[in-house]
Automatic annotation (TrEMBL):
Pfam families documented for this protein: Phage_int_SAM_1 (PF02899)
Name recorded for this polypeptide: Site-specific integrase
Annotated ranges, domain Core-binding (CB): 5-85
Lineage: Bacteria, Bacillati, Actinomycetota, Actinomycetes, Catenulisporales
UniProt record, GO biological process: DNA integration; DNA recombination
PANTHER family per the UniProt record, alphabetical: PHAGE INTEGRASE-RELATED, PROPHAGE INTEGRASE INTD-RELATED
MF GO annotations: DNA binding
Record key words, sorted: DNA recombination, DNA-binding
Amino acid sequence: MEPGLTVGEWWQRWSAAQDLAPATLESYAQQYRRYVHPRFGQRALAEITGLDLSEFARDLREAGLAASSVTVVLSVIRDLLADAVAEGLIPSAPPLRLRHRRTGAGAPVRPGVAVDVETVLAVCARLPAQEALMAVVALFTGMRWGEVCGMRRQHLHPPGEPGGPDGAWYRIDTTRGAVHEDVHARRFFGPPKGGAGRVIDLPGFLADLLTEHAANTGGRELLFANRRSAAIRHTDFLTRWRRACDGSLMGAAAGGAAPDALAPICLGLRFHDLRHSHKNMLVELDVPEILQDDRLGHRPPGMRIIYAHPTPAMREQMIYGLEQLWADRGKVQVSP
């Protein structure tokens, strides 16, 4: 045992030994640097009690941290302590008893929202063309922010290419298919969430929009990039996204006496909600669950992953339905 070993010293040894996906390890590191180290970094592992952890959880909640985020932070310190026990550094891990006031009925702090195509197109009309196209991609593919932001020209395939479906498709790369950001907002490429790539069938209209967009990017590899041809910073995008969704006060026009209000379209809408919306679209189109899971990158539960498989007929029917949604709901200018 090492009774004088501090949490900070153990973190250095522990984090260096983890064999985790880069995004997962960075998430642990962010929670540790922001919350765990300031509170426990200089404390000896053997001194931490269950009461210390309960008070820590209470203080995080009172500081305004969402319940889901509190859970993630606590998982870091609990994993550190549990592995310290496994290594024989401390005799046991302190229990964590979370007793606190219930302010709701157990509802998620930030539940997902599903919106219709018209709502998203209205938001797109307020965004720069590139970012409007990113939103349309997310809505009609269910791809995550990091996956859309990390799209590359080489993985965009026109209809009829070998190695994929009959129609147009995009391959999310297993090793570098998504953009991630560290605590300092530095961007890096790594595996998509779940660690596995996948093929995304593209409706014809979306394949056309992406092909046109790719042709107008000057030959760069990233389909979506900032002015320096680097991956888009999430906070930069979020500023424009929030204004497009929530509305704002516009500057006064030349000679005008007062600013004009930009009316909200969908308050609080997140880019990730486009993924929820795509899931709803698939349900409404009666897409089989096994194809929904395949498209969204979910691992099917139970025996479904063994005995059920997406078929070309399933994919063709899904693409037809998505095409009809686009044709029936109108269009917005999203090309460069």
